[in-house]
Prior knowledge:
There is one protein chain. By secondary structure, the chain is an alpha/beta fold. Helix content is 24%, strand content 22%. The protein contains nine helices and 16 strands. The chain has helices at residues 13-22, 63-66, 81-85, 106-112, 150-165, 194-197, 213-223, 257-267, 317-332; strands at 3-8, 28-35, 58-60, 71-74, 93-96, 122-123, 129-130, 133-134, 144-146, 173-179, 202-203, 230-236, 243-250, 274-276, 294-301, 306-313. Helix 3 links the parallel strand 4 and strand 5. The longest helix is centred in the middle third of the chain and has 16 residues, at 150-165. The protein starts with a strand and ends in a 15-residue tail after the last helix.
Amino acid sequence: xxxxxxxxxxxxxxxxxxxxxxxxxxxxxxxxxxxxxxxxxxxxxxxxxxxxxxxxxxxxxxxxxxxxxxxxxxxxxxxxxxxxxxxxxxxxxxxxxxxxxxxxxxxxxxxxxxxxxxxxxxxxxxxxxxxxxxxxxxxxxxxxxxxxxxxxxxxxxxxxxxxxxxxxxxxxxxxxxxxxxxxxxxxxxxxxxxxxxxxxxxxxxxxxxxxxxxxxxxxxxxxxxxxxxxxxxxxxxxxxxxxxxxxxxxxxxxxxxxxxxxxxxxxxxxxxxxxxxxxxxxxxxxxxxxxxxxxxxxxxxxxxxxxxxxxxxxxxxxxxxxxxxxxxxxxxxxxxxxxxxxxxxxx
Length: 347
């Protein structure tokens, strides 16, 4: 069976990455692509790399244009997905790549986003440890899925194994991420201009103000942390794609480096897209570029009594579009890996 697909926000980075992956997915047929101010223009005017989709023209993002498809992917700014999704048929699988349906707490939404709160959907990180299981269990048969924030999934995947195993403390977590500017979308702000980014590393949202903080806390609570505290600082670096997340937490007394390595390997044993490197190895963003793979290196700073995790992923692929499509595969009963690749692009 082939499923008909619409992608809203198709002229942006996340929308373009969704379309790039979907174009090679044997089970999905892309029929409609939408935009707002770019409606009426050829898709290739905004996604010139998607040559196989040259026949598509952007139409206005309305419930009427999105209805009638089996699957709808929403790659819209926060506050916009919720309005559209509420008007789509209940039987349609809707996957939101924005923030509108990630947070379970209306108070957290008000504090970090503001505006209308639209409620939480099934969270689209299948490999994430949740209690004694994985988040993929909540995705089977789902018709509403919230794809993750790319930074949030990076930190959560990196630390959840230690939380679930009871070997790290969730109350003193520090994460510093090197991130590419594509994670902010096609945003015409001074801080994203090439002249501002090239040759520089630029911290932002310093002091616990980044909107992914409550999402990380929510994920770590589900892994078993009671009241996690997270100091999270992203740093823009001059690479178009990629996240390198260095996250640390206090080890419980008596935990050995071997126990740490074993806990992370056990957490992701059998996972195709989240892989733990051998002890002593750490990943680079170049290793995962253009793939649905997250690579994790784990080390112990015995003098400081802390575990250090280094996770690399492609923010547009595994961090957003790949997670969305992987989750849709699960919801529809398809092979979870369909249309997705573990292989990166080099050099």
